[in-house]
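Assemble and predict.
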Amino acid sequence: MGRVLPLDGCVGGDPQSQRVALIRASVPDDAEAGALAELFRLLGDVRRTSILYALLEAGELCVCDISAAVQVPEASVSQTMRLLRASAVVDNRREGRRVYYRLADAHVRMLLDVCREHTGHEGSR
Amino acid sequence: MGRVLPLDGCVGGDPQSQRVALIRASVPDDAEAGALAELFRLLGDVRRTSILYALLEAGELCVCDISAAVQVPEASVSQTMRLLRASAVVDNRREGRRVYYRLADAHVRMLLDVCREHTGHEGSR
DNA sequence: TCCTCATCTGCGCGGATCTTCAGATAAGGT
DNA sequence: ACCTTATCTGAAGATCCGCGCAGATGAGGA
């Protein structure tokens, strides 16, 4: 991952280095950071984003509805949903030959909401 | 982007198709979806995620402190910060030869918090 | 003015990932 | 049983993106 000089940079021996040590302690370790990044990464794709917002609006949709809603081939939707389900971003339910997907939990809904607030400049307060 | 059959799939002529039309109307258009995905995409990288959580804890850090905190070469940190700044995820402030970075706004902090709640299983209730 | 330190930028390589096609599987209806 | 429909899977190609190096820029101090 490339060389990182011990601590001789701008913090060489000054009070800052203690602070850095404290921060290192409270920052997520590699494993947790990986998990956090993974969740964001899943949301960070136009296709997936569109699908998730469609689910946020609709509550529940089957693959072919999603396909129609976001104008993406059904096979592609299916693949996308597999990814999202593997990371517990969405849940699914089978009814006859249809499989209905929905957002997994309130956290996901909240992430989508907050992000839309941040991006759009509409009355977020 | 691949072919998408009109609306003849499983919703052919049944009430669902109206619903799909409604959903299409309220779902972010391509432009907005792109912006939303872009924000998530920026958060969806282990290195960036680590840096952002460091900033969440510390409030404000200069490049060399970040470098020490997340163990990444300063040049790489600098590049990363440029990306994050371009999309208004972080803000910066110059003091002498140091440049201090901080999270841009409450929305970003909220995203990080919510994500950590979802990932970690600690008392998020 | 010269030198040092902190930060920034341009470039190229390596690796991960999105996309789609074509075929497999599952569930119903006739 | 057979056929149709809805969804899933595997694989391959093209693309994108992160990564680090080496050098440039800007700001202070002597």
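Chain A touches chain B through 67 residues (CB under 8 Å).
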